[in-house]
Structure formats: C-alpha cells, structure tokens
C-alpha cells in the first residue's frame, strides 16, 4: 500500500481512500486584518479542507468542528506538554516555567487537574454566589446612576475585578498587573509577531507581581489560593508545585471572564430582541452567557503538537508538527450548528468548544459561568434598554477576541 493511501474499512486493504493533502493557505491567522474580522477567513479555512497548512508559521490548522473536537479528544496523539502555543517546547525553552496543568499530558496532568478541579468545584462555588450577586447589583446600580459608560472598563472589567481577586485571596496592592499579565500570557501563545514581542518587552513588572502573589504567605486564609496550598500539606502536590498552580488561575481566571462578559454585553446590545427575551425570562441568563461564549469565542485558538505520524480528516500529519485549532470557527461550523451566525439565547449551546473539550476543558468553567450568569441576571432585572452610543473599538490579542471599548447607554426598567 502506498504511503499516500489509508484504509477506510477495516484492515483488509480492500477499500482504500487516497489521502488528501493539507491545503496550504496564505492567510495569516495572527494578523491585524484577520483579527479585525476573522469570520470570512474561518469560512475559507473550513471550506478549503479538513486540515489546512499555514506555510508562514509552519503549522497545520483545523477549522471544522469535527476535526477540532477529534484533536481535543486525543491528547495522546495531540499533546499539550510541548506547549499549546506556536512555540514547540521540545525545540525552544518556554518563556516562563511550563504550566503544570495546561502544558501537561496524562498521567502527570491528572494529579494537578484533580487539585484545581476540587478548588473550583460546585461546593466551593456555592458560598461565592451570594457575594457575587451583591457585587453585580452594586455594579449595575452605579452604572444606572451614570447611564452612559464603557461596557468594557466599567462593567466587563469592573465586575470580575470586584469578585475574582477576593475569591482567590489576593492582596489589594498590585491588582492592576492582573489584566496585563493575562494579556501577556495569551499573546505569548501566538507567533513571534509584534503583539507577542511588545507584550514580552513590557512583561517584567507583571511577571514579578504574579510570582510574588502565588506564594502561600500572600494568599488570604479561606481563599481559593490558600486551598491550593493546603493540598501541599496532604502530599497531593509538592510545596513547590502549589505556587505554579495558583499562577494558572492568575493567568487564565480573570481576563477570560472579562472577555466573556464583554462578549455577552456586546451581543445583547447588538441584538435587542434577544435582550428583551432575556428580560422576559431571567432564567435564560446562564444560557445567554453560554451562547455568547459560543458566538464570540473569547478564546479563539489553541495549538497542540503531534506525538506521532497521524491521519486526521483523511490527511497525513507527521510527528512533531503543530496543529492550530480554531475553536471560534468550530463554534460556527454549519456542519454542526443550525444558523451558526445567529445569536440565539435559547439555543442548545452545550457542545460548543469555547471552553475547550475533553481532559483540558476549562477547569474554571463553573466560576466563569457563575460570574456571567449573575451579571446578566442583574442587568436584565434592572435595565430596560441597552444601546451602543459611541465608537466600538477592538482589542487585539494573539488568542483572545474582544473589545477595547463599548460605549453604552442604559435606561432603568
Ligand atoms: C487555560 C490557560 C490559559 C493560560 C494559562 C494557563 C491556562 C495556565 O495554566 O497557566
């Protein structure tokens, strides 16, 4: 059998399907033009082939739901331990010590995952809900007084900043480093373009802050950070591992929710009929947030690295290659979704890959959904109309998609 053929039915070799080639594309999925409006390019990539190739960054890519899902669910073949950005840790030293959860494979991944899973479990979320409701109400109250404000700074950032650092048990000083640090982390998954290089140049103070705040003595008793360190007392993790696991929450736990809540706000402001449906039935708040995560996909992409020669979507990919998963494109693949470009808060949004899928699926998803649900509930309860009343500007990041500014005017119900 030729190397360019694969077996499609059993191993008899009777039904052989010639392998396809990964279709090379001259698109730069990390360029400003792409970020300004990725949807036409996502369509081109999905239609080109099940597996595409980007010669400019020497990476394979998958943009259809089926292949994205397949890669996410085969962590042995598509590993994370060589990094989930473009940089291959087998060839390049990571810019910071590797994450013990994100950038780990089974079996090592299982132990750290269990720890973060427990400190972010339903039992830990339950007592947080009440204080999140109070904070969301206070935020909405204040915005109703002002009427006109920036939906990003004053709501999407202000609300998570008012609950997340306290839930973790962070000191009050230095919290202004949290969002820039996360922006650095998510830019660093991208190629060595201007976005990544600039973020790296400005990174020292943010890194120093995070490094210090991950230490046990800087995390308040009763907080999620202290709960992680407590797992070192039982021997489940070593004392040296605890700060790195706290670092994962500082990296992935704040900016992502800022972008998620920003996405929900932007959707509800653009689709007033959906906003009125939410107002009419507040129990839709949680699914409205979920649909916003599908529709906007705040985390647009992640990479994996192949651990062996593999056939994906009838396309051969050699060992040691990067595969870029377009989560946002999978979330609007018409092969998987009816009317994918429609924002519908009653849609069955579950199954979207905005939080990933499989063993690495967002370990903080319950905290993210709690923040999103509580904020949309508070808004829909108190606000009659939500109107965009100024220029909307986009934030640019190699991994995150969202807005820099969203001028809004609201009227009380
Ligand atoms: C999901 C995610 C994003 C960024 C950083 C990390 C995880 C981490 O574990 O550090």
Judged by helices, strands and strand pairing, the structural class is: alpha+beta
Distance separating the two termini? 70 Å
Tell me the Rg in angstroms.
22 Å
- The level 1 CATH classification is Mainly Alpha
Strand percent estimate:
5-15%
Number of helices: 16
| CATH homologous superfamily (4th level) name | Cytochrome P450
What is the second-level CATH architecture? Orthogonal Bundle
Textual characterization of the structure:
The chain is an alpha+beta fold and 413 residues long. It has a single domain, classed as Orthogonal Bundle (Cytochrome p450), CATH 1.10.630. Helices cover 46% and strands 14% of the residues. The chain is built from 16 helices and 15 strands. It has helices at residues 32-36, 39-48, 65-72, 108-119, 122-146, 151-168, 178-188, 194-201, 204-213, 224-233, 241-252, 255-270, 272-280, 285-296, 327-330, 365-382, and strands at residues 5-7, 16-18, 23-24, 52-54, 59-62, 78-79, 148-150, 301-306, 310-312, 315-317, 322-326, 383-388, 393-395, 402-405, 407-412. A six-stranded mixed beta sheet has the order 3-4-5-11-8-6, with helices on both faces. Helix 5 runs parallel beside helix 16 (365-382), helix 7 packs across helix 8 (194-201) and helix 12 (255-270) packs across helix 14 (285-296). It is globular, with a radius of gyration of 22 Å. The model is unreliable at 1-12 (pLDDT under 50). 3-methylbenzoic acid binds next to helix 11.
């Amino acid at each position: 059998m030729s190397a360019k053929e694969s077996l499609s039915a059993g191993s008899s070799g009777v039904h052989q399907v010639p392998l396809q080639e990964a279709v090379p594309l001259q698109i730069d999925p990390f360029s400003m033009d792409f970020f300004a409006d990725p949807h036409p390019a996502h369509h081109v990539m999905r239609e080109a082939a099940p597996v595409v190739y980007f010669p400019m960054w020497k990476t394979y890519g998958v943009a259809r739901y089926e292949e994205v899902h397949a890669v996410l669910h085969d962590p042995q073949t598509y590993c994370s331990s060589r990094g989930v950005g473009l940089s291959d840790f087998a060839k390049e030293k990571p810019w910071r010590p590797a994450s013990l959860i994100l950038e780990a494979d089974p079996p090592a991944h299982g132990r750290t995952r269990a720890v973060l899973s427990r400190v972010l479990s339903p039992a830990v979320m339950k007592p947080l809900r009440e204080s999140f409701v109070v904070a969301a109400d206070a935020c909405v109250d204040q915005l109703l007084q002002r009427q006109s404000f920036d939906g990003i700074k004053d709501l999407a950032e202000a609300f998570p900043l008012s609950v997340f650092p306290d839930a973790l048990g962070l000191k009050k000083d230095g919290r202004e480093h949290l969002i820039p640090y996360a922006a650095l982390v998510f830019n660093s998954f991208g190629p060595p373009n201007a976005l990544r290089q600039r973020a790296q140049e400005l990174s020292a103070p943010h890194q120093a802050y995070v490094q210090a705040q991950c230490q046990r003595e800087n995390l308040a008793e009763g907080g999620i950070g202290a709960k992680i360190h407590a797992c070192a007392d039982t021997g489940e993790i070593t004392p040296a591992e605890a700060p790195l696991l706290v670092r994962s929450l500082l990296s992935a736990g704040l900016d992502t929710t800022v972008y998620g809540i920003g996405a929900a706000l932007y959707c509800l402001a653009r689709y007033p009929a959906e906003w009125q449906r939410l107002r009419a039935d507040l129990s839709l708040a949680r699914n409205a947030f979920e649909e916003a995560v599908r529709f906007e996909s705040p985390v647009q992409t992640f990479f994996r690295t192949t651990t062996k020669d593999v056939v994906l979507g009838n396309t051969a990919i050699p060992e040691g290659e990067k595969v870029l998963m377009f989560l946002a494109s999978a979330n609007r693949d018409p092969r998987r979704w009816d009317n994918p470009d429609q924002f519908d808060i009653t849609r069955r949004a579950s199954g979207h890959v905005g939080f990933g899928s499989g063993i690495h699926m967002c370990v903080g998803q319950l905290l993210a959904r709690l923040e999103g649900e509580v904020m949309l509930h508070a808004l829909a309860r108190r606000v009659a109309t939500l109107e965009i009343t100024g220029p909307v500007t986009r934030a640019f990041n190699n991994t995150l998609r969202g807005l820099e500014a969203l001028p809004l005017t609201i009227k009380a119900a």
